[in-house]
Amino acid sequence: MTTPTTTPTRDHVELRSGAYADSVTLLQVSRAVQATPGVVAAQVAMATGLNLEVLEGMGFDIPASSPNDMVVALRLDPDADVSAALAAVDAALAPTRPTAGDTTVAPPRTTGSALRRTPPGAIALVSVPGASATVEAMDALEAGRDVMVFSDNVPVAEEVALKQYAATRGALVMGPDCGTAVVDGVGLGFANAVRPGRIGIVAASGTGCQQLLALLHHAGGTSEGVGVRHALGVGGRDLSAAVGGLATREALRRLDADPDVDLVVVVSKPPAAEVADALTRDTEALGTPVELGLLGRGQRDLTAVAEAVLERLGHTAPEWPVHGTDNTGPATGPLLRGLFVGGTLCDESMLMATEALGPIRSNIPLSDDLALDDELLIDAHTMVDFGDDALTQGRAHPMIDPTLRNEQLARAAADPATGVILLDLVLGHGAEPDPAALLAPAIEAARRDRPVPVVVSLVGTDLDPQGLDAQRDALVAAGAEVHLSNASATRRAIQLIEGAAR
Amino acid sequence: MSQPTVVTAGADMFADSVAGQAVDVERVDWRPPMPGTETDLATVATDPRRPEANRRAVEAMLGVTAHLVDVAPASEVLGLEKGQFLHAGPPIEWDRTSGPLRGALMGGAALEGLVDDPEDAVALFESGTGVSLEPCHHRSAVGPMAGVVTPSMWMWVLEDRATGRRTYCSLNEGLGKVLRYGAYSPEVLTRLRWMGDVLGPLLQAAVRGTEEATDVTGILTQMLQMGDEAHNRNRAGTLMLLRDLSPAMVSAGFDAKDVADVLRFIGGNDHFFLNLAMPACKLALDAGRDVPGSTMVVAMARNGTDFGIQVSGTGDEWFTGPAQVAEGLFLGDYGPDDANPDIGDSAITETAGIGGFAMATAPAIVRLVGGTVPDALATTRRMHEITLAENPRWSVPVLEFQGTPTGIDVTKVCRTGILPQINTGMAGAVAGVGQVGAGLVTPPAEIFPKALAALAARAASA
Fold it and tell me: In chain A, positions 121-160, which contact chain B (CB-CB < 8 Å)?
């Protein structure tokens, strides 16, 4: 990106050492400042290597700095007032949190300090950068408290160390890299608002958990007594060989001991075979019945797991809702393009599509030989998880910042080989306040030149802050076909591609 | 699991989201750690030995009661020989010494008769013949400011009766032109000789003649509730010591004029008790030494050139950086240019959780060190962010009797960037000047990442 020479602008760059705000806040600050009259471009960011690259890419000249400096980089119209722009920066950065009654007590600086100030039973939610997450999480475990590590990019060795220590303290580590939990009705991280009930969920998968929450909540609208007591996200790697299900075991122990839980469901990304076997044996020893929904070749999809849960509770699964089928015409090419924010949804779709269409190339491939390199759009069926660590390094999760996926959506739509685009959109606590407002225009633009079928699995509930219906309607109006079930959406996409091949 | 309070560290949106569900949220004001420490912090945080090691170090420290058991010359109790000099802070060679340490060594050489004129001692120390320098800390001792100890100086002897361990400190000379601030004029040496001839022997008789050995830790408990923080204010502690020792002093059979002189000297020196507070702190902290995996600081000390710390989990290794100049108030016409960088073993008080860490309990001196009462409360509260425990014996009435912040954790300093707050006197930069002021100072930040790296290296190989 360079500055067009036709419109002269001037740059204002300043370093603020000692200032700090998290990347999500700074993203919002940058957006707010960009909206100020006279500001052509604005980037307020910590001077990390990655952010400096972005700034240099924007054509800003950044003086020598350290990662602990905050950079304020503004590109202004020639006659714009720099002080007005800086005032907008300061206003956007000003803390909005309510001040405590006793202003002489400074806020805690570590998780440990905060836990000393709160009543027993408090739990910790850690979303600091991955390199610092373990340290904060250990504070909670040392205090014998449960912790949810939302942060991604936590080294697996540190995850193992945290969970081994937690086991000695009888504490539960939720996460890392699986930002979903509902603890006694309170959603932590990315979580859907659901009807309370007597089902317990253990999820080694964030969006897998959210899919299950959304489906069970929908079914609960007609089946009395279906609801969720706790959903404990244990981290996307918990059932890997390295971690060995340490947190899954503790979560199962908790739910088994809870007299208000009648049935436990375990959902997971494809687990390590030996870990899955051991887990199966362990669950048989529990007093509470357990429905295992571990994704994998030849295993049930998440929707089938939800249906089995309903059946076990004596209910018949409802028809899973679909809207906007009229929007969808035949596939416009031979290839399926899946662009996901949810890793488990991506896994589920890949497993289903592989069976029907053959190998799927991905950045989170089902086997190593199917891995994509830096180029995400190639001449094969592709499915990309934009929530994967490698694509979130130095930026916010795609549920918060959809820029990268929207760019890829435009590229996929422009590729004549693209036959169907399969997307997910996840609602709930922690997600964008109006994600459809960002995705719908991208879908509309993608379909402008030729009507590529866009099939969306919209994971959410009518209790979510965004409102399921409004989000769905916006997507349908933009030309998408919208499913509540990702399996149902995937099946539809496969069917369209198969139709084109015939 | 029932409707919990949620502590959040990280993105505000998640805290907002939880608060939006009508749940109590305590937000951590999280900021990135000291540059380059992330990996070492994670290594040390996940060192499986650390939590238990810190618990043990803290417990050992808090379990110590220091009793005053004797007063005797350093030659007897430390085995110090002529030509051996102890000094404050981490090890240092003569050619790197600052003015006040030089002045104190020169005066000490004259006191011991190694030279007639203190000025002649410069050549002696330059040659190095027959003289050696060693930190007080290496001999179970501590010394305020320059901390120079020579064989003829009389020492307080404190003992932990549970283990028999002892620590030592010289007798306090008072303020102004004194050896520990680098002054070595004839009046300084005259006073030191009187302390050796009269004060030391009388205190020895008094201590040995006092039936119940004075509980120095107990006096610290009381003085913290009487407006002393036991570093820059020791007024209540000094008076309580006098109360304990006076009967035996009077009945020890010494010349009445000497007894009166001694009582007048102690009563006129508000800092007399500092030299008991310091070895009491050292006695406690030494109990926390050498616990593998512990990240607790067991000594902070300065020699006027370097600021050094020692950490429980890294043995006797010193982690050093340049000593800083204190900010505060100056005596007379002196100003910041006259002050020497920070000096003395007295930061052992902050290491143990008093001094600057107990600032909230000593509002009377906040202006001496250039602050306000709210600053004092905030300082003590801030120190809780970097410490492992609260000391149940040392409590602060104005903070609802909360225990003082005790046991500095290297990892917490690196995580928060909050540096230990030290109350201190300021020595003149030029040898011979003496005290020029008092104020507040912090260690150089870089010594904590250095210590952290050493802890991480040991954790990785454990």
Answer: 121-129, 131-132, 134-136, 138, 140, 142, 150-151, 155, 158
Residue A304 CA: distances (Å) to CA of A133, A301, A310 = 35, 5, 10
Indicate the average pLDDT of chain A: 91
- Residue A366 sits at φ, ψ, to 5 deg, of -70, -30
Instruction: Note whether A120-312 and A322-501 share their fold.
Output: yes
pTM over 0.90: no
pLDDT band for position B369 (cuts 50, 70, 90): low
Quote the CA–CA distance of B299 and B290 in Å, as a whole number.
12
Whether residue A114 and residue B7 make contact (CB cut-off 8 A), yes or no, is: yes
B256 neighbors B141 (Cβ within 8 angstroms): no
Return the domain boundaries, chain A. Answer: 10-93, 120-312, 322-501
Nearest to B385 among A110, A125, A128 (CB): A110
* B6, B35, B416: residue with CB nearest A125: B6
Partners of B440 in the β-ladder: B327, B423
User: The domain A120-312: what is its CATH number?
Assistant: 3.40.50.261
What is the C-alpha to C-alpha distance for residues B49 and B294, in angstroms, rounded to an integer? 8
A192 part of contact set with chain B, CB < 8 Å: no
Dump pLDDT digits (tens) for B2-42.
567 999 999 999 999 999 999 999 999 999 999 999 999 99
Please answer yes or no on whether A127 and B8 come within 8 Å at the CB atom.
yes
CATH architecture of A10-93: 2-Layer Sandwich (3.30)
Contact in structure between B33 and B414 (CB atoms under 8 Å): yes
The answer to whether A400 and A432 are in contact (CB under 8 A) is yes
Site from B30, B359, B373 to mutate, A interface, most A CB atoms within 10 angstroms: B30
Tell me how close the Cα of B400 comes to any Cα of chain A, in angstroms.
Answer: 14
* Number of alpha carbons in the 13 Å side-chain half-sphere of residue B306: 18
Q: What is the pLDDT of residues A97-124, one digit of tens each?
A: 444 334 468 999 999 999 999 998 899 9
Nearest Cβ partner of A22 from B6, B11, B382? B11
Mean pLDDT to the nearest integer, B277-303: 98
Q: Which of A281-290, A413-422, B135-144, B430-439 shows the lowest per-residue confidence on average (mean pLDDT)?
A: B430-439
Q: Return phi, psi of residue A202, to 5°.
A: -115, 125
CA distance A20 to A93: 10
Residue of B nearest to A185 (CA): B3
Residue among B18, B28, B47, B452 with most chain A CBs within 10 A, to mutate: B28
pLDDT value at A86 more than 60: yes
How many A/B residue pairs have CB atoms within 8 Å? 184
Chain A residue whose CA is closest to B33:
A132
pLDDT tens-digit readout, B291-325: 999 999 999 999 999 999 999 999 999 999 999 99
Quick one: pLDDT at residue A120? 87
Query: Across the interface, do B7 and A140 touch by the CB < 8 Å criterion?
Result: yes
Window 66-95 of A, Cβ < 8 Å to B: 66-68
Q: Write down the pLDDT at residue A100.
A: 39
- Contact list, B31 vs chain A (CB under 8 Å): 20, 109
Nearest-by-CA chain B residue for A148: B8
Which domains, and CATH codes, for chain B?
1-30 (no CATH), 50-61+288-461 (3.90.1700.10), 65-277 (3.90.1710.10)
A326 burial (CB, 10 Å; 0-12 / 13-18 / 19+) is exposed
Query: CATH assignment of A322-501?
Result: 3.40.50.261
From the CA atom positions of chain A, what is the Rg in Å?
Answer: 23
What pLDDT was estimated at residue A6?
Answer: 57
pLDDT digits (tens, 9 = 90+) for B163-175: 999 999 999 999 8
